[in-house]
Amino acid sequence: MRPVLPEPLRPLSDLARNLRWSWHPETRELFQSVDPEGWRATGGDPLRLLGSVPAERLAALAEDRRFLRRLAAAADDLQDYLTGRRWYQEQPPGLPAAVAYFSPEFGITAALPQYSGGLGILAGDHLKAASDLGVPLVGVGLLYRHGYFRQSLSREGWQQEHYPLLDPNELPLTMLREADGTPARVTLALPGGRSVHAHIWKAQVGRVPLLLLDSDTEENGPGERDVTDRLYGGGSEHRLLQEMLLGIGGVRAVRAYCRLTGHAEPEVFHTNEGHAGFLGLERIRELVVQGADFDAALERVRSGAVFTTHTPVPAGIDRFEADLVARHFGEDGELPGIDAERVLALGREDYPGGDAALFNMAVMGLRLAQRANGVSVLHGQVSREMFAGLWPGFDAEEVPITSVTNGVHAPTWVAPEVFRLGARRIGAGRAEDALSVGGSQRWDTVADIPAADIWELRRTLREQLVEEVRARLRAAWRERGAGSAELGWIDGVLDPDVLTIGFARRVPSYKRLTLMLRDRERLTELLLHPERPVQIVVAGKAHPADDSGKRLVQELVRFADDPRVRQRIVFLPDYGMAMAQKLYPGCDVWLNNPLRPLEACGTSGMKAALNGCLNLSVLDGWWDEWYEPDFGWAIPTADGAAVDDARRDDLEAAALYDLLAQRVAPRFYDRGADGLPGRWIEMVRHTLAGLGPKVLAGRMVRDYVERLYAPAAEAHRALDEAASRELAAWKARVRAAWPAVAVDHVEAVSEGPLGGTAELGATLSLRVSVTLGELDPADVEVQAVAGRVDEADRLAHTVTFPLKATGAPGLDGRRLYEGPLTLDRTGPFGYTVRILPSHRLLACGAELGLVAVPSHATGEAAGVLMR
Q: Which CDD domains did the record assign (predicted)?
């Protein structure tokens, strides 16, 4: 039953159904004023609030002139936000008309629980930042009727899972309908003549529509209805069906949405992790139906595709038995016009170290996208090494996977008190732009904020966190079966004047939830230090099927239950967005201690930093990239080859304890004559001024637009039907001819004798004889590659430059290439030459994974020149 609002209050419905309220303080404050107690009871959910407000209260508000003025102002502000020109509209022409962004989960707000952890929160922040910037994005995901699980604890501290049933009609969603009012739907064929149908729900995230597919429809049988039952649940076939619905059904949902609303068709398709990789197959099918052959369609699809990997370890990638995939893409399954072998070839691990019996979703994502990226500089490096087998013959640094470092949506994660402090210095409008659009390198106005104001703010946020922790802890203990009489101790848990450390995230083993427990006596000393105590707030969920993760949670909970320390360390169950928005601002230090380099990015510390919290972290993910001593502390890494896992944990835990005891706590408690910790406050200033602008989702989305979306759109436009046929035919011809391509002879000519040494600035003339077989010089580029020679006798820090063909081929068919090589650096210096395929429509020379280099016999002249 939906509430009927009096006519003057009708704009409240529009405000509640656009999720911009989740990051717009004025709109939230407006809803809170409707019914403050109801707002708290509904967890800050406007739709639930409006459904619970008594009719007499609504009638009174409809007559309240002051409230109606505020309502009109909020409605007008939303309209301006939705229709005004923003950053994207001010850019030069050529940007994509629209971008489709696919992800298995989206963390927009706690009122729409369709996320499990960092991947979903990142996707939600991506949509919000795109909205703030005016990027014409369309989000695509699945609507999980049970969402992700809710976590509670048994009396013994064992994680328990609960799956609440979500009714889409009670969520901020509207069903996409055809012109005749019937629900729009997509259908996928399944083996055995079955089908799975899905309705399309839309969440409006500011300017960005988010389409969520829902298989819980009456047209489906029981098994098919459960395809979208829960996030990351079920067995292998269940996951495959979810990912087919997300990718294939998602493209069909986008087409339906654009057809029904007039939204521009996407020119770029962005796959956020491999789960949605099948979207490329559906786009190929669309072109094949229009008459294209598979190879030409593949080239056209690749040109406009972007693939983002978030996984630094092969075990984190979805892999399916090839036979299972083949069955679902056979003649009686989905995409019947496409040979199942062509599908399998896209995801097959047919490279050294791979398993050809498995279908790898990330491998398919990379093969179906001309542009790919990791989510931090270090993760880009790790990804290039992890997937180097797809580009044989190339060093890892040349694997075409770049990086765009993640960011976080500041308006969502910055506490209102922090925003108001900034707004007092530069005005609310400029402060809002600084947090959402970004663009500046530093926020130097932070330097003008008095130290006393910063410290008062930090204590206020800490005090709010203490109150929040006590309330949540009391509720958690009641769920564990405790009575009120045994919970009096909770009133003394945490102290608003004690150094507060936060640690909250998912609980896979590599994040090392229990590293802090490695030496319990040492930790206890830190917690109970008579002059410089610390207190720790911990939260996190283990995957329901991960018993080892649950044991880590239980180990931490049992330690926190100890009466000796329970007032200084707490574990809060059911970590989610609502808890996180209180936790990040209230902590003084954010702790992160993963096994390096297994944290692809890790954005929790970014959210903390935006609230003036300092980071204490292993140099992994984003912290490896942006760490400075002014922003916090780096935990040393003991990752030598001779150090086993247990020894590594011992060493890094000891380093953590030392940092806390000798550097972190003393700085926090070192007070000047004015009673303020001056050096600590300066670190807070530096964090806000120098780190704040870097960690913004606005910066991240601008990077995607400029470095990936714009080039992808340009490539997609260039690769029309004729060009895609040409490129596909050219690739086939080059692959067939490549075995005959060879570097036959290399020689270097210098004015003086080399003798193993040469002078800086000298120039060599390179002469290279090559065999091209059936290929022409226009099909290749002959390059010289020069750089420093490392201890393993490999070229490092290389530069490449093309050599030029001279004259016609010789009688033996060989061709001669020449060019100068300038010796531009001292120390061990070397060079080699190579041949790469070359075509105007390739994104890079490594795209085909083909290269010809000198053999040992022909490459004698390519070696160390200077020492």
A: GT35_Glycogen_Phosphorylase-like
CA distance 295 to 365: 16
The per-residue pLDDT for 867 is 44
CA torsion 144-146-152-156 (nearest 10°) is -100
What radius of gyration do the chain's Cα atoms show? Answer: 29
- Angstrom distance (rounded) from CA 604 to CA 593: 12
Which DSSP string do the residues of 33-82 spell out, in sequence order?
A: HH-HHHHHHTTS-HHHHHHHS-HHHHHHHHT-HHHHHHHHHHHHHHHHHH
Contact, 297 vs 724, CB < 8 A? yes
Closest CA to 516 of 580, 578, 589: 589
- Name, in order, each residue with C-beta under 8 angstroms of 669's C-beta and a sequence gap of 6 or more: 499, 531, 532, 677
C-alpha to C-alpha distance for 784 and 807, rounded to whole angstroms: 19
Backbone phi, psi, residue 23, to 5°:
-130, 15
CB half-sphere exposure, 797, CA atoms < 13 A: 9
Report pTM.
0.95
Mean pLDDT of 144-156: 93
Which residues are within 8 A (CB) of 74 and not within 5 positions of it... i.e. 6 or more apart?
11, 15, 26, 27, 30
| Half-sphere CA count of 665, side-chain side, radius 13 A | 20
- Report residue 748 as tokens: 């270097």
Percent of the chain's residues with pLDDT above 90: 83
| Residues 198, 228 contacting (CB under 8 angstroms) | yes
Question: C-alpha angle with apex 818: 813 to 821, nearest 5 degrees?
Answer: 150
Q: Is 113 exposed, middle or buried (0-12, 13-18, 19+ CB in 10 A)?
A: buried
3-state DSSP assignment of residue 438 = coil
Longest dimension (CA), the chain: 99
Task: Give 444 or 861, the one with higher predicted confidence.
Answer: 444
Is the bond preceding 820 in cis, omega lying within 30 degrees of 0? no
861 versus 211: the higher-pLDDT residue is 211
How crowded is residue 802: how many other Cβ atoms within 10 Å of its Cβ?
Answer: 13
48, 32 in Cβ contact below 8 A? Answer: no
What are 669's two structure tokens?
């408690």
pLDDT 10s digits, 691-743: 999 999 999 999 999 999 999 999 999 999 999 999 999 999 999 999 999 99
Residues in the chain: 867
Strands 268-272 and 99-102, sheet pairing: parallel
Beta strands in 241-321, from DSSP E residues, in sequence order: 268-272, 305-308, 319-321
Examine the pLDDT at 161 and tell me if it is beyond 80: yes
Contacts for 350 with CB less than 8 Å, ≥ 6 apart: 356
Q: Provide the token pair at 62.
A: 């409809």
688, 443 Cβ separation under 8 angstroms: yes
Strands 195-205 and 174-175: antiparallel
Instruction: Check: CB of residue 325 under 8 Å from CB of residue 237.
Output: no
Structure-block tokens of residue 647: 């020894």
> Which amino acid, 601?
C
Say how far apart CA 257 and CA 235 lie, in whole Å.
Answer: 31
Measured between alpha carbons, how far is 413 from 125 in angstroms, rounded to an integer?
10
Give the position of tokens 């929790």.
Answer: 604
Per-residue H/E/C for 781-805? EEEEEEEEECCCCCEEEEEEEECEE
Contacts of 354 (CB under 8 A, 6+ apart): 348, 360, 389
Are 139 and 209 in contact by the 8 Å Cβ rule? The answer is yes
The answer to which of 319-333, 339-353, 437-451, 644-658 has the lowest mean pLDDT is: 437-451
- Hunting for tokens 């035919």 — which residue is that? 729
Strand partners, 100: 138, 269
| CA pair distance 278, 186, nearest whole angstrom | 15
Among all chains, which residue has been given the structure tokens 């010289």? 784
Beta strands 829-837; 150-153: pairing state: unpaired
Distance from CA of residue 310 to its chain's centroid? 6
Burial of residue 630, with CB atoms counted within 10 A of its CB: 0-12 exposed, 13-18 middle, 19 or more buried: middle
